[in-house]
Amino acid sequence: MAIIIKTEEQIKLIRESCRRLAIVHKELEEMIRPGISTREIDIMGDSLIRKMGGIPNFLHYNGYPASICVSVNDEVVHGIPSKHRILQEGDIVSLDAGMIYKGYHSDEARTHGVGQISPEARKLIDVTRESFFEGIKKAKAGNHLFEISNAIAACVKPYGYGIVRDLVGHGVGTKLHEDPQIPNFAQIKRGPKLRVGMTLAVEPMINIGRADVEWLDDDWTVVTEDGSLSAHYENTILITDGEPEILTKC
C-alpha cells in the first residue's frame, strides 16, 4: 500500500478542486424535483463542472459513459443517467460526482429526497450522513484507519441497516482512486496510521435492508439485492494536525 502524503501545494490544488465541486453539487441539488430525467441532471452537471474550470473525472473512467452518477432508490452507486429515467415524487436519488482541477481530483456524493419522501427514507438518508460525521471524528493524525470504519459501523448498527461491503472509500489526489481503501464496516486489522497530509474520500453506503448488492447487466449500476432503498454520503477530507478538514463543503 502506497499512501501519498500531499505537499502544501498539492493540498492547495485539491482544496480548490473540492471547493468548486461543492458548488456544482449545490447547484444540482436545486434541480432535484419530480419530472426531471436523470440525463438532464447529468447534462447540467457536466456543464457546471466545465464552467468551474474542471474536467468531469467520472466521464469515460474505465468506460463509464456519463459525468454524474445518478442512482435512484435501490441503486446504490454508479447509476447511468437516462432520458427515460424520470424522477418521481417520493424517490430518493444519490448524486456522485467529481472533477479534475489542474490535475487534482475531488469526489463527493449526496442523497436527496424527491418531493415528499417517506419517514423511513428520510431516516436512512439522515443516518447515512450522521455515520460519515461519526467516522471522521476518528480521522485524526496518529489514529488508525480502522477507527474510521468502526465508528461508521457503530453508528449504523443500532438501526439494523445493511452496510455495503463490496464498495469502500479511498484516497484522492492525482488519481480518483488512491490508497488506502476505507471500508465502512467494522474492521479487526488496524490498517495504516493516519498522517497529516492524507486526502481521503470517506463514503458510507447504507441500505435500509440487507447489505448484499449486485451489478446490473450494464456492468456499472450497483443495486441492493433485496430491492431496498440505499443512501450514499461522501466528502473528500484532509488529515491535519488537528480536526479533519472537510474539503467538499460549501
Walk me through the structure:
This protein is of the alpha+beta class. The protein has a single domain (8-246), classed as Creatinase/methionine aminopeptidase superfamily (Creatine Amidinohydrolase), CATH 3.90.230. Helices cover 26% and strands 24% of the residues. The strands form four sheets. A five-stranded antiparallel beta sheet has the order 8-7-9-14-15, with helices on both faces. It starts with 7 loop residues before the first helix and ends with a strand.
Q: What topology emerges from the helices and strands here?
A:
Layout: H1 8-29, H2 38-51, E1 55-56, E2 69-72, E3 75-77, E4 92-101, E5 104-113, H3 119-136, H4 145-156, E6 162-163, E7 169-171, E8 178-182, E9 199-202, E10 205-207, E11 213-215, E12 222-224, E13 230-232, E14 235-238, E15 245-246
Antiparallel strand pairs: 1-4, 2-4, 3-12, 4-5, 6-10, 7-8, 7-9, 9-14, 10-13, 11-12, 14-15
Helix pairs in contact: 1-2, 3-4
